[in-house]
Amino acid sequence: MCHPSWGRARAEAHRLRDLALLRRVRDRIDREYARPLDVEALARGVNMSAGHLSRRFRQAYGESPYSYLMTRRIERAMALLRRGDLSVTEVCFTVGCSSLGTFSTRFAELVGVPPSVYRRRAERSTAGMPSCVAKQVTRPVRNREAPITGPDGPAWEAASPVPVP
What we know:
Layout: H1 4-32, H2 39-45, H3 50-61, H4 65-83, H5 88-94, H6 100-111, H7 115-125, H8 131-137, E1 149-150, E2 153-154, H9 155-158
Helix pairs in contact: 1-4, 2-3, 4-7
């Protein structure tokens, strides 16, 4: 009969292997966010089923692979919108989204305002701010439940030197 600790050691080794695979998936999303990615393709890359990958990713990182991918895309879109030289539609396709409607909806969920409103407000609120500071101040919410708000509205609005209507 096997010693009980062998089963625990084996389970721990399996958990650590899964975590390493999940880091590979997360790193791939970070690198390839602008490419067409879906959970099935990500799962194939680490020899998991899409369902197993989604469950394990959510357990490890608190969100689904799709949600993580969309957050990366929205973060990049925010930077492009702050630059101001691309239309919202161009930004949508540049960050890898294929539907302007889905992009705009997800953007509004994460940021608290539609992309066009964000662009107008960001132009005023981040004027003269170094890009590294603007990125931190305007970062989208991680928990996807509600925007981070203070008494003056979303955090990036509160940091604005110019009142935002």
